[in-house]
Amino acid sequence: MKLIWMSDLHFEADGLVQGHDPRLRLQAAVGYIAEHHADAAACLITGDLVETGSERNYKRLREGLSGLPMPVLPLVGNHDDRRVLRDVLPLPGSAMPGFVQYRADFEDLSVLCLDTLIPGQAAGNLCQERMGWLAAELAALEGRPAIVAMHHPPVKLGLPMLDPDNLQNGNELLDLLAGFPNVLHLLAGHVHRPCSGTARGIPFATAKSVLYQAPPPQPEWDWSSFRPAAEAPALTVLERTETGLTLQQCQFCDYALGAAGAV
Ligand SMILES: [Fe+2]
């Protein structure tokens, strides 16, 4: 069983975002998935679907994603508008009212998609209502394997400019997850960098952006000197195996595609 994982599309109907063309990058990703991974059960997108949360942007994004031969599991990021996202993009029937939080069940894996948005802030949080929903869903799985996906990473990653804007109550989330050994992996977006490790013994990974990449922490940088790294984008292919999961990071186009001024 295979899933595709994309993150941080920062889609806009017009213009460039951080010097990159979100329409060309999305088209390349969708084309790559349709050509090479049409057998995937779903395509998970861990938030920042759009750069600005207008209805027009979400409708154009929906058109751009329509070339995918599998259902999309959208998550909300700090650039998203929860209400407009819900109005335009279909969510599974299990979604919590008023949030972009739901469970999607596949043959031998469930995906718990969390809504970590605090409207108007870069950092994320899971309120008691959403945490309670997660506890109930984890219990309802009765040990069946699951992965947990969210926009904001629940742990510090050693990225000084990005760590302050992660999930504020990540420890609380990890306290809950520690009681469920059937949680095979955590997936997060937000940082536009591929990081992986363990958190209280649970493996986690963050993803490259489909659009633009954050530089590594060294050489040091701050927001006044921020320029996206000249790195190619990637998406990830997740496969359920006999022993657990594999995550394959796949470059779907060259850096130069849709990057202003790239040679
Ligand atoms: Fe982002």
From TrEMBL:
Q: Which UniProt keywords apply?
A: Hydrolase, Iron, Metal-binding
Instruction: Supply the Pfam families for this chain.
Output: Metallophos (PF00149)
Keyword set includes Hydrolase: yes
Ranges where the Calcineurin-like phosphoesterase domain occurs: 1-194
Which SUPFAM superfamilies does this one have?
A: Metallo-dependent phosphatases
Please give the InterPro entries that the UniProt record associates with this protein: Calcineurin-like_PHP, CNP_phosphodiesterase-III, GpdQ/CpdA-like, Metallo-depent_PP-like
Q: Which domain of life is it from?
A: Bacteria
The answer to whether the entry has keyword Nucleus is no
Family, similarity comment: Belongs to the cyclic nucleotide phosphodiesterase class-III family.
Name the UniProt record assigns to this protein:
Phosphodiesterase
Q: Which organism is it from?
A: Leisingera caerulea
